[in-house]
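ESCALATION

Customer reports they have been waiting on this structure for their group meeting. Please prioritize. Original submission:
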Amino acid sequence: MDQLTTFIETGVFAFMLTFVRVGTAVYLMPGVGDSYTPTRVRLFFALGLTLVIAPLVQNYLPGGIPPAFEMFGLLISEFVIGAFIGMISRILMMALDTAGMMISMQAGLANAQLFNPAFASQGSIFGAFLIITGMLLIFVTDLHHLFILGIVNSYETFPIGDMPDKGGMAQLASRAVGTAFAAGIHIAAPLIVVITVLYIGMGVLARLMPQVQVFMIAIPAQLLIAFVIMALTISSGLMYWLSFYEEGLYFFFSGR
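Update from on-call: job pushed to the front of the queue and completed.
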């Protein structure tokens, strides 16, 4: 009986408490937590990751099983922390969606909507393309390992039993949104500048030669220029986003 009690306290309870934080973070994790990933795959991935992380965070877990009310509070706290970790990583991905939306607006394709698997909603064509490419680059460059490291380090930043500071979490989330929006604008900046110059030129042409159908000339030129600029800048834009994503994960999850 004593061995069974010890096993429940040190094994089952520790695994369950770790699984709440890890499973919630994995459910919102880019790639694995997307809507196109089967629920069973996400569950097995979270269970396997919990088996690996649980021994590493054993020193941060409570010594025994707390009373029912306190245990319920621990589960709620772990759920909030896991959701916050996953939400931050998801917000950093929004930089690509913002860039895609800006590019689509400048290319004249803002009304062309496509299903965006990362957010399970309709989005711009360029946004869906950038999101899928960025997701591939995360796993190719092993940046998902940094996300897992952030989950382990979160036990130092957010100890078990301490309800996270709501104000601090809101500030971090707002900072992540601001930096993601700025990164998206930086990625789309070349096309924004070139298309703005095109609009100015077409406006001058319309004033100098009113008989010319400027609209019929501008739309094909706008699409051609957009695809040419995308072909020339897509690699550097994605490399810039990768460095931004890595720095964001280090800042929010690694205490830097």
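Sent to customer with the following note: Helices lie at 2-28, 39-53, 68-107, 125-140, 144-157, 166-208, 214-253.
Escalation resolved.
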